Input
Amino acid sequence: MAITQSRTLFSVKEITSNIRQFLEAQFSRIGIKGEVSSFTCHSSGHWYFNLKDSSAQISAVMFRNANQKMTFQPKVGEEVILWGRITVYEPRGTYQILADRMERSGDGALQKAFEQLKTKLKNEGLFDQKRPLPYLPRHIAIVTALTGAALRDVLSVLNRRSKGIRITVVPALMEGSQASASVQLALKQAWKLKDLDLVLITRGGGSAESLWVFNDEALARLAFECPVPLVSAIGHEIDFTIMDFIADLRAPTPSSAAELISKSNVELLEKIQSNKKSLVYSLVRVVQQKVKDLNSCKRTLASPLSKVEDALLKCDDYVVRMEQNLKNFLELKKHLLHKLKDVLIQLDPQQIMSRGYSLCLKEGQVIRNSAELTLKDVVDIRFFKGKVKAQVTKKEKT
Output
């Protein structure tokens, strides 16, 4: 934009408007680092303050729709980085930065380191392991500071909901240069506890710097090796750390973590009563169905007594048939026997000798040929009636 010659006459509005257009065109998106001073939170929700360094200052405003997205409210004397555009408030003729984003000085580097580590561990698959929590844990280890409000909140909720849970508190530093090593040691001690079902690591809210211990890579890798499900409840709901992504479950607050890992005794009793009713109802339905099936079978199946009666009738029939068959068999054999008797009678030597024939025996053997005898042989001669002994005195040829 060309600068008009000084001899040209402007109204106040015109020159102010031109300056505004120039500044907004030249500084449409900038970042400014400085110290907060004269901070005011208006009843409308807008923030008005100055940003200064050692030799200059600039007015700043952050409207409500922008500052509602902030995770912190700046304090006078705090060094921050503002992101926004330069504009002019024409009624007063003052220029200012209209901020839409703010971060504490140093937060940018921390956020970059956070994102880099998050991407690295995610690519290695350390965020993929999500185990289900035990339905009714019997032994829980809580890794936290002994003096923190987080421990009081968790114990209060657990005592109210489920007094039967065994709780072991493993103390650890929750912030500071020694916190990472302290939390790692506490985790290792927790894993040695007998019959451990779950580990809860928790602390209350704080600044990004105070929560930074839970973005430690060594701690994250150790937490990934936890042998039992791990629940993370770090800070407030808007706070996220690497530990939240490593854990099997992330709870927004310590109190909500206690709610998630426990079951209310009242809820359990109600669930048992509900399951009992469902079981009884299902059992009644099964019995009713089986009775219907039995009645249906009774209608389709013949009476066992009638089957027995049919079997008895068949047996009687078989007996009659067997008796008749046996009678016929005996008659047949009797007839055959008579025939054999007649044949035997016809073949009986006595019958033959009754017609005048006799038998000649020598030493008990029947003589059929005279050649079988020699002179003076003694033979027995049997007649139809009686027998005699004789001696051969003469042989004649026939």
